[in-house]
From TrEMBL:
A Pfam family this chain is assigned to: TatD_DNase
GO annotations of cellular component type: cytosol
Entry GO MF terms: hydrolase activity, acting on ester bonds; metal ion binding
Keywords: Hydrolase, Metal-binding
Record: residues binding a divalent metal cation 1: H5, H7, E90, D200
PROSITE patterns: TATD_1
Protein name: TatD family hydrolase
Gene3D superfamilies xrefs: Metal-dependent hydrolases
Tagged with keyword Ubl conjugation: no
Protein family: Belongs to the metallo-dependent hydrolases superfamily. TatD-type hydrolase family.
Length: 253
Protein backbone atom coordinates (compact mmCIF):
# COMPACT_ATOMS: atom_id res chain seq x y z
CA UNK A 1 0.00 0.00 0.00
CA UNK A 2 1.23 3.50 -0.81
CA UNK A 3 0.84 6.64 1.27
CA UNK A 4 -0.12 8.89 -1.62
CA UNK A 5 0.95 12.11 0.11
CA UNK A 6 3.71 12.27 2.70
CA UNK A 7 6.36 14.94 3.32
CA UNK A 8 9.22 12.66 4.23
CA UNK A 9 11.67 15.50 3.59
CA UNK A 10 10.23 17.69 6.37
CA UNK A 11 11.01 17.55 10.10
CA UNK A 12 10.56 15.46 12.15
CA UNK A 13 10.21 12.72 9.50
CA UNK A 14 13.46 13.64 7.79
CA UNK A 15 15.32 13.32 11.11
CA UNK A 16 15.04 9.51 11.00
CA UNK A 17 13.93 8.36 7.57
CA UNK A 18 14.92 4.74 8.19
CA UNK A 19 12.68 4.53 11.25
CA UNK A 20 9.74 6.16 9.45
CA UNK A 21 10.03 3.71 6.55
CA UNK A 22 10.38 0.72 8.89
CA UNK A 23 7.32 1.66 10.94
CA UNK A 24 5.31 2.15 7.77
CA UNK A 25 6.43 -1.17 6.27
CA UNK A 26 5.50 -2.97 9.50
CA UNK A 27 1.83 -2.18 8.85
CA UNK A 28 1.98 -2.76 5.08
CA UNK A 29 2.65 0.80 3.89
CA UNK A 30 5.55 -0.11 1.63
CA UNK A 31 5.66 2.96 -0.62
CA UNK A 32 5.49 6.71 -0.02
CA UNK A 33 4.84 9.45 -2.55
CA UNK A 34 6.61 12.63 -1.45
CA UNK A 35 5.53 15.89 -3.12
CA UNK A 36 7.77 18.94 -3.18
CA UNK A 37 6.96 22.23 -1.50
CA UNK A 38 9.69 24.46 -2.92
CA UNK A 39 12.63 24.53 -5.30
CA UNK A 40 14.96 24.20 -2.30
CA UNK A 41 13.59 20.68 -1.68
CA UNK A 42 13.98 19.22 -5.18
CA UNK A 43 17.55 18.02 -4.75
CA UNK A 44 16.71 16.32 -1.46
CA UNK A 45 13.73 14.59 -3.04
CA UNK A 46 15.92 13.37 -5.87
CA UNK A 47 18.20 11.78 -3.25
CA UNK A 48 15.24 10.22 -1.43
CA UNK A 49 13.99 8.73 -4.69
CA UNK A 50 17.04 6.44 -4.69
CA UNK A 51 15.23 4.45 -1.98
CA UNK A 52 12.98 1.78 -3.47
CA UNK A 53 10.12 2.73 -1.11
CA UNK A 54 10.02 6.40 -2.15
CA UNK A 55 8.49 8.08 -5.20
CA UNK A 56 8.66 11.84 -5.63
CA UNK A 57 6.87 14.78 -7.26
CA UNK A 58 8.17 18.22 -8.24
CA UNK A 59 6.20 21.33 -7.38
CA UNK A 60 5.85 24.77 -5.82
CA UNK A 61 3.43 24.84 -2.88
CA UNK A 62 1.38 28.04 -2.48
CA UNK A 63 2.19 28.27 1.24
CA UNK A 64 5.94 28.53 0.68
CA UNK A 65 7.88 31.53 -0.60
CA UNK A 66 8.98 31.40 -4.23
CA UNK A 67 10.83 33.36 -6.86
CA UNK A 68 8.07 32.62 -9.33
CA UNK A 69 9.70 33.26 -12.70
CA UNK A 70 13.03 31.70 -11.73
CA UNK A 71 11.39 28.70 -10.09
CA UNK A 72 9.18 27.93 -13.08
CA UNK A 73 12.20 28.27 -15.38
CA UNK A 74 14.12 25.85 -13.15
CA UNK A 75 11.21 23.38 -13.11
CA UNK A 76 10.90 23.57 -16.88
CA UNK A 77 14.60 22.80 -17.26
CA UNK A 78 14.51 19.99 -14.68
CA UNK A 79 11.59 18.27 -16.42
CA UNK A 80 13.37 18.39 -19.77
CA UNK A 81 16.29 16.38 -18.39
CA UNK A 82 16.40 12.91 -16.86
CA UNK A 83 14.49 13.05 -13.57
CA UNK A 84 12.69 10.81 -11.06
CA UNK A 85 9.49 12.84 -10.70
CA UNK A 86 6.20 11.00 -11.32
CA UNK A 87 3.87 13.97 -10.76
CA UNK A 88 3.68 17.76 -10.57
CA UNK A 89 2.98 18.99 -7.06
CA UNK A 90 2.25 20.01 -4.55
CA UNK A 91 0.80 23.05 -6.30
CA UNK A 92 -2.41 25.03 -6.05
CA UNK A 93 -4.05 28.01 -4.39
CA UNK A 94 -4.36 29.06 -0.77
CA UNK A 95 -6.21 32.20 0.36
CA UNK A 96 -5.53 31.43 4.03
CA UNK A 97 -1.79 30.88 4.31
CA UNK A 98 -0.54 31.55 0.78
CA UNK A 99 2.81 33.33 0.70
CA UNK A 100 2.12 35.17 -2.56
CA UNK A 101 -0.75 37.45 -3.63
CA UNK A 102 -3.54 35.45 -5.26
CA UNK A 103 -2.74 36.82 -8.71
CA UNK A 104 0.80 35.43 -8.45
CA UNK A 105 -0.47 32.15 -7.01
CA UNK A 106 -2.78 31.81 -10.01
CA UNK A 107 0.10 32.33 -12.44
CA UNK A 108 2.34 29.90 -10.56
CA UNK A 109 -0.37 27.23 -10.50
CA UNK A 110 -1.23 27.81 -14.15
CA UNK A 111 2.38 27.34 -15.23
CA UNK A 112 2.63 24.08 -13.28
CA UNK A 113 -0.60 22.79 -14.83
CA UNK A 114 0.79 23.60 -18.27
CA UNK A 115 3.97 21.67 -17.46
CA UNK A 116 1.85 18.74 -16.32
CA UNK A 117 0.05 18.76 -19.66
CA UNK A 118 3.28 19.09 -21.64
CA UNK A 119 4.96 16.19 -19.86
CA UNK A 120 1.78 14.13 -19.41
CA UNK A 121 2.17 14.00 -15.63
CA UNK A 122 -0.62 13.95 -13.02
CA UNK A 123 -0.93 16.87 -10.60
CA UNK A 124 -1.18 16.97 -6.81
CA UNK A 125 -3.36 19.94 -5.90
CA UNK A 126 -3.60 21.93 -2.68
CA UNK A 127 -6.55 24.31 -2.33
CA UNK A 128 -7.95 26.36 0.58
CA UNK A 129 -10.76 28.89 0.17
CA UNK A 130 -10.03 29.14 -3.55
CA UNK A 131 -12.12 26.41 -5.16
CA UNK A 132 -13.84 28.70 -7.66
CA UNK A 133 -10.50 30.05 -8.86
CA UNK A 134 -8.94 26.60 -9.13
CA UNK A 135 -11.93 25.18 -10.99
CA UNK A 136 -11.70 28.09 -13.42
CA UNK A 137 -8.06 27.19 -14.08
CA UNK A 138 -9.00 23.54 -14.59
CA UNK A 139 -11.67 24.52 -17.11
CA UNK A 140 -9.04 26.43 -19.08
CA UNK A 141 -6.37 23.72 -18.80
CA UNK A 142 -7.74 20.17 -19.11
CA UNK A 143 -5.44 17.56 -17.55
CA UNK A 144 -5.11 14.43 -19.71
CA UNK A 145 -3.03 12.65 -17.06
CA UNK A 146 -5.43 13.64 -14.28
CA UNK A 147 -4.43 14.27 -10.70
CA UNK A 148 -5.66 14.45 -7.12
CA UNK A 149 -7.12 17.15 -4.89
CA UNK A 150 -5.28 16.29 -1.72
CA UNK A 151 -6.65 16.57 1.82
CA UNK A 152 -10.18 17.23 0.56
CA UNK A 153 -12.72 18.42 3.13
CA UNK A 154 -15.56 19.88 1.08
CA UNK A 155 -19.04 18.89 -0.01
CA UNK A 156 -19.99 16.01 -2.28
CA UNK A 157 -21.10 18.45 -4.98
CA UNK A 158 -17.71 20.20 -4.90
CA UNK A 159 -15.86 16.89 -4.96
CA UNK A 160 -17.78 15.80 -8.04
CA UNK A 161 -16.84 19.03 -9.82
CA UNK A 162 -13.20 18.01 -9.39
CA UNK A 163 -13.97 14.44 -10.44
CA UNK A 164 -15.42 15.81 -13.69
CA UNK A 165 -12.02 17.43 -14.31
CA UNK A 166 -10.32 14.01 -14.23
CA UNK A 167 -9.20 14.32 -10.60
CA UNK A 168 -9.28 11.90 -7.70
CA UNK A 169 -10.17 12.94 -4.15
CA UNK A 170 -7.44 12.60 -1.54
CA UNK A 171 -8.81 11.43 1.83
CA UNK A 172 -6.69 12.12 4.91
CA UNK A 173 -6.86 12.51 8.66
CA UNK A 174 -9.88 14.82 8.67
CA UNK A 175 -12.04 11.75 8.09
CA UNK A 176 -11.14 10.45 11.59
CA UNK A 177 -12.88 13.36 13.33
CA UNK A 178 -16.52 12.72 14.22
CA UNK A 179 -17.25 16.46 13.94
CA UNK A 180 -16.17 16.49 10.27
CA UNK A 181 -19.68 15.57 9.19
CA UNK A 182 -19.54 17.25 5.77
CA UNK A 183 -16.33 15.48 4.82
CA UNK A 184 -17.51 12.14 6.18
CA UNK A 185 -20.75 12.39 4.20
CA UNK A 186 -18.82 13.28 1.05
CA UNK A 187 -16.45 10.34 1.39
CA UNK A 188 -19.34 7.98 2.12
CA UNK A 189 -20.95 8.92 -1.20
CA UNK A 190 -18.00 9.15 -3.59
CA UNK A 191 -17.46 6.44 -6.22
CA UNK A 192 -14.82 4.04 -4.96
CA UNK A 193 -12.68 4.52 -8.06
CA UNK A 194 -12.35 8.26 -7.29
CA UNK A 195 -10.76 7.96 -3.82
CA UNK A 196 -7.17 7.62 -2.66
CA UNK A 197 -5.79 7.72 0.88
CA UNK A 198 -3.00 9.88 2.29
CA UNK A 199 -1.54 11.02 5.61
CA UNK A 200 0.02 14.38 4.63
CA UNK A 201 2.63 13.53 7.28
CA UNK A 202 3.89 15.22 9.37
CA UNK A 203 0.77 17.40 9.09
CA UNK A 204 -2.95 16.57 9.34
CA UNK A 205 -2.82 14.56 12.61
CA UNK A 206 -5.58 12.03 13.22
CA UNK A 207 -8.21 12.39 15.91
CA UNK A 208 -6.65 11.75 19.29
CA UNK A 209 -3.20 12.79 18.08
CA UNK A 210 -3.66 16.55 17.92
CA UNK A 211 -0.40 18.38 18.53
CA UNK A 212 1.71 15.39 17.50
CA UNK A 213 3.56 14.76 14.26
CA UNK A 214 1.65 12.53 11.85
CA UNK A 215 3.36 9.47 10.34
CA UNK A 216 2.79 7.26 7.27
CA UNK A 217 2.00 4.21 9.42
CA UNK A 218 -1.23 5.96 10.41
CA UNK A 219 -2.56 5.40 6.89
CA UNK A 220 -4.37 2.26 8.01
CA UNK A 221 -6.22 4.26 10.68
CA UNK A 222 -7.60 6.41 7.88
CA UNK A 223 -8.72 3.30 6.01
CA UNK A 224 -10.42 2.04 9.16
CA UNK A 225 -12.26 5.34 9.57
CA UNK A 226 -13.46 5.23 5.95
CA UNK A 227 -14.60 1.62 6.34
CA UNK A 228 -16.79 2.73 9.24
CA UNK A 229 -18.84 5.01 6.94
CA UNK A 230 -18.88 2.95 3.72
CA UNK A 231 -20.15 -0.53 2.83
CA UNK A 232 -16.76 -1.88 1.71
CA UNK A 233 -14.39 -3.82 3.93
CA UNK A 234 -10.98 -2.40 4.80
CA UNK A 235 -9.37 -4.92 2.45
CA UNK A 236 -11.62 -3.84 -0.41
CA UNK A 237 -10.80 -0.19 0.28
CA UNK A 238 -7.07 -0.92 0.31
CA UNK A 239 -7.34 -2.80 -2.98
CA UNK A 240 -9.26 0.05 -4.61
CA UNK A 241 -6.86 2.67 -3.25
CA UNK A 242 -3.85 0.83 -4.61
CA UNK A 243 -5.52 0.29 -7.98
CA UNK A 244 -6.41 3.98 -8.21
CA UNK A 245 -2.88 5.06 -7.24
CA UNK A 246 -1.29 2.64 -9.67
CA UNK A 247 -3.44 3.99 -12.48
CA UNK A 248 -2.97 7.67 -11.66
CA UNK A 249 0.76 7.65 -10.93
CA UNK A 250 1.73 4.80 -13.28
CA UNK A 251 3.39 3.01 -10.39
CA UNK A 252 3.73 -0.27 -12.27
CA UNK A 253 5.40 1.29 -15.29
Amino acid sequence: MIDSHCHLDLSPLCDDVDSVLAQAAAVGVTQLLVPAVSRLHWAGLQQLSARSQVRVAIGLHPCFSHQADADIAAMTQRLESVHPFIAIGECGLDKVEGKLPLEQQLWLCQQQLLLAVKHHLPVILHVRNAHNELLQLLRAIPLPAGGVVHGFSGSFELAMQYVRHNLLIGVGGVITYERAQKTRKTVSLLPLDKIIFETDSPDMPLSGNQGKANHPHHLLNIVTAVASIRPESEQRLIHAHQKNCNSLFQLNS
